[in-house]
UniProtKB/TrEMBL annotation:
SUPFAM superfamilies: OsmC-like. The lineage of its organism: Bacteria, Pseudomonadati, Pseudomonadota, Gammaproteobacteria, Oceanospirillales. InterPro entries: KH_dom-like_a/b (IPR015946), OsmC/Ohr_fam (IPR003718), OsmC/Ohrsf (IPR036102). This is OsmC family protein. Pfam families: OsmC (PF02566).
Length: 140
């Protein structure tokens, strides 16, 4: 896997993935940015949500669960007054909806993602971040 990050001036950077997709990262105005894109640490958090959501949807599909939506709401805490200001805690809350979803399958999918399949979650937790998960099932 490869990526390229190019400076765009001030504290703005454009990143391009090996598959050709781009994102803009920028800082807030009080740190020399113009708020033209997500902060770099926000992209880490979003990547975690995407990685884990992919797993949950995939596992539920294999279990023949009729999923119509899956939303991952993430909240994170960072070390205060420290440099680097690393993540210390991250919580992922999945809101899954569909037809006749079985709670045991949703619970299992979230657990398997957290403990076995989500590379991002496992990497962060091995690095000392407390990563927790929860879920809600909504009927459609």
């Amino acid at each position: 896997m490869k990526a390229v990050v190019e400076w765009q001036g001030d504290v703005c950077f454009q990143a391009e993935s090996g598959s050709g997709h781009t994102i803009v990262m920028d800082g807030p105005p009080d740190h020399g940015g113009q708020n033209r894109g997500a902060r770099p640490m926000e992209t880490v958090l979003m990547g975690l949500g995407g990685c884990s959501s992919f797993d949950v949807v995939h596992i539920l599909g294999k279990a023949r669960q009729d999923v119509s939506t899956c939303r991952c709401e993430l909240s994170a805490e960072r070390a205060e007054d420290e440099i680097p200001a690393v993540f210390t805690k991250i919580h992922l809350h999945f809101v899954v909806s569909g037809n006749n979803l079985k709670e045991a399958h949703v619970k299992r999918a979230v657990s398997l993602s957290a403990e076995k399949y989500c590379s991002a979650a496992i990497m962060l937790s091995r690095g000392g971040v407390e990563v927790t998960h929860s879920y809600t099932i909504e009927s459609r």
